Amino acid sequence: MTETNRTLVIMAKAPRLGSVKTRLAGNLSLRAVTELYGCLLNDTISLAQSLDRIDVAIMCPESDVEELSRVVPKTIRIVPQTGEGLAAGLDSVFAHFAASGKQSVIAFNSDSPHLPASALKKAFDLLEADDIVVGPTHDGGYFLVGAKVSHANLFTREGMGTTNALEALLTQARALGLSIQLTDPFYDIDVEGDLNRLAAELRFAPSRAPRTAKWLKEWERAQEDLRTSAGDL
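The structure assignment produced for this chain is given below.
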């Protein structure tokens, strides 16, 4: 592992049927959702590994460690979180990786592989001058959060709702007296509209997330074949 003072931790799950991207299950089969998530995760890892002088790790539920170890590069350290749920996972990221107080640590979701690498570098740069950095999503959540030390009570189970997660985090950070920097807003892949937007973008720039772009192209072709077959009946 490269000796740096910056660590990017991907919040991941094992690509298991029924356990990932469940809000897409109304539009895709469980198998398709699981395949898609595997592509998003692997493209996210590639994005993280493209950054210079930044260590990369994965934080996941303890039950997912063994399965993830079979599908991600051996060079990526996988660390089990303490406790259940996203709030516990985020607490675990900073308790584990920022314990020394010498690391700038960013927790990054596993479904924004289309984020420009420069945006992640900028997030680390912003963190140099403030206590936390947050990357807002357009739906009221956030796609990354960074800190240099672990802050007790920064993340709460009640603050993980899709539409109010960002405001809950910012409110808690202000209550703790922490200085905050926000990155430019971005989007992750939660619902059908997000997926359609990503598919449209990757048609023109597949290199941003090549595995996901290939999967989406094949999926769209299959959907078109189904529509053509239905029209022939």
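Interim note for the steering committee: The chain has one domain: 6-193. The chain is about 40% helix and 15% strand.
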